[in-house]
Structure formats: C-alpha cells, structure tokens
C-alpha cells in the first residue's frame, strides 16, 4: 500500500503532429476517416534503400511556433515536441507564469533523438574536417533536448526528464508524469513523445534487420497490422503531447477535462534484444498490472490502442497477450492499431497513441485498423477493420512495447466527478 494519498490526475489539453495531420483536430479527423499518411519518402532520395516509404509529417512549419534563429538551432524532433506542447497548452488554456512554473513538469520521451543531425555532421566531419562541425551538434542531437527546450520555450521549471525506452518511451513519459502528479510532487505536466527518425541511416539499419515493409509500390497499403500479408512496420514521425493536471488544480481553474488517467505499469521481457517473448507474457503482465493500478476489471475496457506494429512477431504475440490479460473479455473489446495510418513513430508512438486513446473516450468513436483485409489466423480479435466505429468507451488501454523488452500500458477512463 502507498503511504501517500493518491491524487486524481486528468487530461486537460492535447497537441498532435503526425503524418495524418498537424493539429489535434486534423489528426483525429484523419484517423477517423481511415486516411493513410504513408507515402514514398520525399525528404531525401530513398532509391538505394530496400524500404522507400514512411509516414512523413507534411507541411509542418516550425516558424509557426518558433522564431527562425531558435528553429535553426534545434533538431526536428525538438521542433515537433515544442509545437505539440504549445498546441496542448493552448488547448488546455493553461498559462505558465512565475506563480506556477515550478509546479509544472516536462517529461517527453524519444527513441533516437537528433539522429539526422548526427548523420549530417558526420558527413561534414568526413568531407570538411573536424573544425567545421557545428558547435550546436551535441545540444541538437542529444535525446533529452526535446524536454529541455520545451521547458525553455514554455517556462515550465518543474521536474524535467526524458525516458529513452525505444518504442515505449512516449508511454513511459506519460506514465511517469502521472505518477509525479499522483504523488503530489507537481500540479501539472507537459508529457508525451516525439521522434524524427526518417533518415537514410535509420532506414538502412531497420531494413538490415528485415523489420521494415518493402511494399514500396503501395505505400498507403504497406502498414497492415494483424493482416496475414504484413511484412514489417513503416517508420513514421511526429509528436503527441498531453497536459496532465491534478484534478483539484484543473477544477479550480475551470478546465475542460477530456478523460482521467488511472493506471500505469511497466514490465520487462528479459528475453531478447528485439523479439518479444513468444507467448507475450511481459506484455500481458503490463496490461494486468495497469488494470490493477486503475482498479478496473477487464470487462470495463471499451477500447485498446494496440502497439500493433505490422511486424510478424509483434501482432500475433500482442494478440496472445491481450487474451491472457483480459480473458473472455478480449473477444468483446474493440482494438485498433493507428500505426496503420501514421506509421510507427518509435519513441514518439506512445504519446500520439495516448492522444488517440483519450480522444476515443472523449468522442465515443474508435479509429480503425486500415488495410486489415485478411486477418492472420492467430489474430482473431475485433481489430476494427477499415472504418471507424461509434462505440461507448468508458475506459481504455494504450500499449507500447520497445526493443530491449520494455512493455508499458496506460489506462484511461471517462472522467467522473466522484472516484467511484
């Protein structure tokens, strides 16, 4: 038992930048319409690569959020994080000032940080010599800089950190922020994930692992979670940010409440560098512990945003894990993988998918898994194929699993003025 009184924590604002839209409204409408944001890579020439497709963010203008000098001195993943954070603060109508700055934290996860900066500067080093490398290379590249720069540009002076747990990083960030507020250490947090890893070297590395889809002639049909013809994930980019607040703090300022975050758990497979435990034991434990933390029964779950990467190993294993965690209720719960539309944002995925999960509760609409034409035999749950669905969602889970065996589950529920 905890020796501290648990505070209730609610979601009061969100920001989203992804291949299907650069605002919360665009993002959610894009998901509900079943629109794929995946296309042939335009940011560099991918012709030498086995996989030449990605979920690139389109039309993003950093100068809408940053002056040109600041934007030039930061990597794209940090630009995304600041932009989505400013969107979320505006959505929450939360102003940061000297009176509350120390009570507002920033926790933003990422997988690989400013890898494009590193690639570009390595080229400078090789062709022009060490003296020509940028003095901004290191602060642009390091993974924690999205969180640090977001604090600088918003004024938040509370706890500031950056989980780097591969594809679980964004969910860890939301969960860690939840715990800080729940324990009464801060009143609010800017939290989520960000990634901008669509680069030549990243693509080459994942392709060498045979992890990426090579359905290059049909980009929008390439990400197909739970489908028997899936052949790997499609890399995406962007950022999803949530404003979490202690309930009484939110109430005192009349904030709109999207949902309440009620559970968080993390486990480890301790099994393999990249592959999940075959029966999904670690992922199942994460879901069961999140349900326990949230004091929710499996029957209460009205939606699961699956990790659903469209890789042969993940999708069948996650299906087994859901069955283990939810029992008979697994066959009744709507499940979808929004990666079918956004691509896989790596360390940013948990943030953008938490946004989608909260919006499902807020709107009673669940986004689809597109391209699910022929479900694999082992993938026999309700994956909401092709089209979004109206469905009452009183509670929901969001799963994120990362290389190294990291498993994270977040639990959200509809906000009720009383805890019962």
UniProtKB/TrEMBL annotation:
GO terms for molecular function: 3-oxoacyl-[acyl-carrier-protein] synthase activity. The keyword Ion transport does not apply. Coiled coil: none annotated. Pathway: Lipid metabolism; fatty acid biosynthesis. SMART domains: PKS_KS (SM00825). It comes from the Bacteria. Residues 6-414 form the Ketosynthase family 3 (KS3) domain. GO terms for cellular component: cytosol. It catalyses: (9Z)-hexadecenoyl-[ACP] + malonyl-[ACP] + H(+) = 3-oxo-(11Z)-octadecenoyl-[ACP] + holo-[ACP] + CO2; a fatty acyl-[ACP] + malonyl-[ACP] + H(+) = a 3-oxoacyl-[ACP] + holo-[ACP] + CO2. The keyword Lipid metabolism applies. Its EC number is 2.3.1.179. The active site is at 167 (for beta-ketoacyl synthase activity). SUPFAM superfamilies: Thiolase-like. GO terms for biological process: fatty acid biosynthetic process. Keywords: Acyltransferase, Fatty acid biosynthesis, Fatty acid metabolism, Lipid biosynthesis, Lipid metabolism, Transferase. Belongs to the thiolase-like superfamily. Beta-ketoacyl-ACP synthases family. Involved in the type II fatty acid elongation cycle. Catalyzes the elongation of a wide range of acyl-ACP by the addition of two carbons from malonyl-ACP to an acyl acceptor. Can efficiently catalyze the conversion of palmitoleoyl-ACP (cis-hexadec-9-enoyl-ACP) to cis-vaccenoyl-ACP (cis-octadec-11-enoyl-ACP), an essential step in the thermal regulation of fatty acid composition. This is 3-oxoacyl-[acyl-carrier-protein] synthase 2.
């Amino acid at each position: 038992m905890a020796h501290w009184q648990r505070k209730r924590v609610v979601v009061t604002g969100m920001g989203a930048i992804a291949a299907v839209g650069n605002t919360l409204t665009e993002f959610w409408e894009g998901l509900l319409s079943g629109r794929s944001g995946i296309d042939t890579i335009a940011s560099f020439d991918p012709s030498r690569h086995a996989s030449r497709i990605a979920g690139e963010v389109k039309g993003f203008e950093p100068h809408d959020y940053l002056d040109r000098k600041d934007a030039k001195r930061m990597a794209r993943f940090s630009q995304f994080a600041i932009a989505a954070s400013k969107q979320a603060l505006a959505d929450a109508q939360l102003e940061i000032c000297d009176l509350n700055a120390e009570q507002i934290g920033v926790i933003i996860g990422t997988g690989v940080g400013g890898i494009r900066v590193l690639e570009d500067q390595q080229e400078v080093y090789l062709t022009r010599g060490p003296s020509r490398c940028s003095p901004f290379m290191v602060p642009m590249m390091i993974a924690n800089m999205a969180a640090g720069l977001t604090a600088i540009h918003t004024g938040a002076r509370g706890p500031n950190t950056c989980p780097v747990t591969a594809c679980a990083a964004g969910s860890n960030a939301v969960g860690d922020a939840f715990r800080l507020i729940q324990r009464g250490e801060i009143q609010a947090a800017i939290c989520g994930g960000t990634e901008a890893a669509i680069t030549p070297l990243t693509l080459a590395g994942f392709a060498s692992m045979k992890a990426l889809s090579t359905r290059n002639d049909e980009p929008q049909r390439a990400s197909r979670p739970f489908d028997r013809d899936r052949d790997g994930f499609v890399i995406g980019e962007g950022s999803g940010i949530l404003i979490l607040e202690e309930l009484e703090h939110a109430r005192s300022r009349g904030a709109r409440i999207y949902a309440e975050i009620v559970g968080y758990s993390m486990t480890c497979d301790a099994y393999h560098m990249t592959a999940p435990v075959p029966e999904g034991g670690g992922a199942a434990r994460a879901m069961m512990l999140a349900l326990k933390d949230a004091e929710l029964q499996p029957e209460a779950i009205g939606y699961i945003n699956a990790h659903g990467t469209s890789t042969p190993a993940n999708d069948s294993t996650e299906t087994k894990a859901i069955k283990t965690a939810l029992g008979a209720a697994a066959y009744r719960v709507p499940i979808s993988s929004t990666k079918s539309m956004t691509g896989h944002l790596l360390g940013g995925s948990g943030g953008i998918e938490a946004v989608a999960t909260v919006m499902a509760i807020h709107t009673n609409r669940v986004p689809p898994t597109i391209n699910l034409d022929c479900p694999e035999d082992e993938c026999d749950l309700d994956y909401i194929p092709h089209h979004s669905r109206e469905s009452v969602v009183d509670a929901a889970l969001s799963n994120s699993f990362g290389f190294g065996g990291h498993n994270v589950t977040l639990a959200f529920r509809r906000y009720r003025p009383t805890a019962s």
